[in-house]
Amino acid sequence: MAYVSLFLKSLGCLVVVAVLVLASMSMDARSQSAPNAMDGPSADPTKEISVTPDARDTEIAKRLQRILDASGWFNPVTVSVREGLVFLDGQTETDERKEWARQLALRTQDVVAVVNRVEVKPQVSWDLTPTWREVVHLSDQAQRFAPIAVVSLTILLVFWFLSRGVAALSRRLLRQRIPSPLLLQIVARTLAIPVFLIGLYLVLQVAGLTRLAVTVIGGTGLIGIVIGLAFREIAENALASLLLSVRNPFRTGDWIQVSGFQGIVQNLNMRTTVLLTLDGNHVQIPNALVFSSIITNFSSNPGRRAEFTVGIGYDASVMKAQDIIIAALRAHPAVLDDPEPAALVDELGPSTVNLRVQFWFDGRTYSIFKVRSALMRQVKRALQDAGVPMPDAAREVIFPKGLEVHGDAAHAPETRAVPTSSSAAGSGDTVVATSGEGDLVSEEPELKRQAAGAELPDAGENLLVSNSPKNEPS
Predict the structure, then answer these.
(1) Which DSSP letter does residue 441 get?
(2) What is the pTM of this model?
(3) Domain 34-120 classified CATH 3.30.1340.30?
(4) Between 3.90.226.10, 2.30.30.60, 1.10.760.10, 3.40.50.10260, what CATH number should domain 249-299+447-471 receive?
(5) Environment class of residue 390 by beta-carbon count within 10 Å: exposed (0-12), middle (13-18) or buried (19+)?
(6) Tens digit of pLDDT for each residue in 286-313?
(7) Distance of alpha carbon 304 from its chain centroid, rounded?
(8) Which end of the chain is more exposed for a tag (fewer CB within 10 A), N or C?
(9) Nearest CA-CA partner of 353 in 316, 401, 327, 386
């Protein structure tokens, strides 16, 4: 019986030890699954707090209260225990401290569960010591970085001046081979940009930013593509200005017509072409529109042709009218003999035979509007003096077989014959130029004088070549 009693006691001790081991393993598992972040040095207990076996609730509460008060992280804090259930009440500054208190209570002997009612309230501190410590740290870093900054700035300035020198030298050497100012400027800057990029690469290498240096050098093309897509219209106008300056369809001072506007070219910048119209107004046309439009350059060839239409009666001789018109044209000093003037039958109208009168003149010397006015006046006078009828289709109706009038002739209204020509009427129509037509000179010199004296705000650098002296009007 003694051996049986000893065996039963040993078996009971083994059961108790097994239960304690299993409880310890379950507590370790719960502690590993909970957050382990701490504010400051680690204070997480690694051993179970030993109370007395079968600890009473008051002993557990007193033990936990002393530990929490000793930590100084909780103010105030109250611990109460009922049937092994721990209730924590109080305030702390961080969530980590709140979790630490819960884990502490769970690791206490004979604690069944924990109700953590600790409130987290961050404390507002007016202590500037951490801020001042950070300022001192930044100051130390700035002092350590100062030599690198001085060397980097020196390298950047040296290569910036080198790039400007390369650009100036390129413009000087290529000025004879590249007549376009815009193309010359682009080529010079293209040659100068690699020099500056080398300096920037060296600066980043000195600063220890090797990867950033490689990224900057490799990403230059990508940046250009992104900028081109974002500013598509600006890029179109810039490219059009480059092509216009290379092709040179007109020069500064040329009289052109483009996109419905006619005037003297004043400026071609990176965005627009500026014209001084015949009305004295400045018009800015986008270069992309200029490049895609039909351009008429009146200054490229001094000889210009103009025309007008004259209507004569059906009973008049067309050949006689043509001879009269050609004689009147040849007699005017502004009309050129080569190419010769012409009077061509253009249309058989309702009441007139329309003749298209064409003539050539020097556009640099004479005004097209004034010369055409003088010639129309003289041709009309010459046809009237020769008795060539010029009926008005809107007010005159011709009856080739006559018109029979029936009724009392005594009551017919009195009619008067209208003379077809008169030597007194319009006697001044034979002069070369009237006071209204002035001296027939071209408006181009006056427009150029106004254009030279006009101010163009924000017009930018002119990318065109000026007119050569041989193209100026005499």
Answers:
(1) B
(2) 0.46
(3) yes
(4) 2.30.30.60
(5) middle
(6) 988 998 899 988 888 888 889 999 999 9
(7) 41
(8) N
(9) 316
